[in-house]
Amino acid sequence: MPLRDPGLLKEANLVGGQWIAAGDNAIAVTNPATGAVLGRVPSLGAAEAEAAIEAARDAQIGWAAKTAKERSVILRRWYELVVENADDLAEILTLEQGKPLAEARGEILYGASFIEWFAEEARRVYGDVIPGHQADKRIVVIKQPVGVVAAITPWNFPNAMITRKVAPALAAGCSIVLKPASQTPFSAIALAVLAERAGLPAGLFSVVTGSARAIGAVMTGSQIVRKLTFTGSTEIGIELMRQCAPTVKKLALELGGNAPFIVFDDADLDAAVEGAIISKFRNNGQTCVCANRLYVQAGVYDAFAQKLAEALSKLKVGNGLEESTVFGPLIDDAAVAKVEEHIADAMGKGASLVSGGKRHALGGTFFEPTVLTGVTGTMAIAREETFGPVAPLFRFKEDSEVVAAANDTEFGLASYFYTKDLARAWKVGEALEYGMVGINTGLISTAEAPFGGVKLSGLGREGSRYGIEEFTEMKYLCFGGI
Ligand code: ADP
Fold it and tell me: According to its UniProt record, which residues of this chain constitute the active site (predicted)?
């Protein structure tokens, strides 16, 4: 379907308020469902990243001086434009990322909800008045924007991972330079087009596509940039953290996960199957909060495996633009290779296939939704994030055993469990070493709640009232001689 507004698929970058068109060495962006080239974006590098950062520094001063209400009004207008253009934005997202159109539309509205939320929160950045330690003194704490922010985002949520960073940064009075993933830059550029239309002053939000290494080096090394916010792999997150050390930047890192999904004997099994499908198979298993290890208690293990396989068999794999598609293609060949590796490793060590297990007849990067039973802790799938449509089922007997197994990972982002027992819900919820716990639900992300992880899953929280705090510094003012 042609876009209602072709201007949203823009083959250019917004750098310091100027649009730079894709030149000769542009990056081709392909549709993972067909392999067709969708368009080209500029291949920029260090010089443009520097220019964007300098423009961000200059623009930020005036932006921070505006009232919160003035910033809020522009953000609100941006939110409205995103919602008004949701169909086009969803189509662009599906074309470059592959997820089904309905899911893409869901992401656009979810992404927009962060702009809406932070437009509101902009006006609620409160400080403190603290009773003084001496009779003639008063202690006041104010919150000020950190200044220039750099953001690096991944391909799995080409819209929402951006709004979740850009909206709170702008709301707090910061400016921001973004490097989106090269696989999915058009969604990011479309957001910049709409931000400009919403009246966001030039220079506050730049999008720079190109060499991750070159742009990342400038962002992390810059004295002007005071905060780096990154969503992506733990490996790159650690590298960026190291690069940020000499300039002592504030850091927000949303890194990998290895989410456990636990089904206790007393769970509502149908609800657990539904939750598992949402949590494990959303975006074809390509989210950092996707269930990676499904622990099922012995009494319901076989029934759960059967119900899950049966439910999956009814869901269609196909091009995301087709109405009834639930599972699109994987992002690229490397993603398919990892899924195949994990399945082969598990099967080689004694796991059994209940359904799926191989590339889909559609070819390309399409893969069959897969259920494996007899999975144990010795298999690679127990340790590493698969990031694909494979549900490995581990069998357990005792609560303490499953909590220990669930926590036996270097990651700590999302976790899930299903039970009807209130005491168990509290105890297990408290014992899981994760930033987020879904209890009787497989879907936990929302603008109102703090999203983030512990251990190697990262630093900081996004969304919620805490999400804006991350873009502020507190300043202590000591009033004497009173
Ligand atoms: P994924 O496996 O999700 O692609 P990555 O961590 O490789 O995760 O990529 C996430 C984002 O980080 C992308 O925008 C990518 O271009 C960027 N990136 C990758 N390597 C580097 C690097 N060395 N410096 C800065 N950014 C990088």
Answer: 254
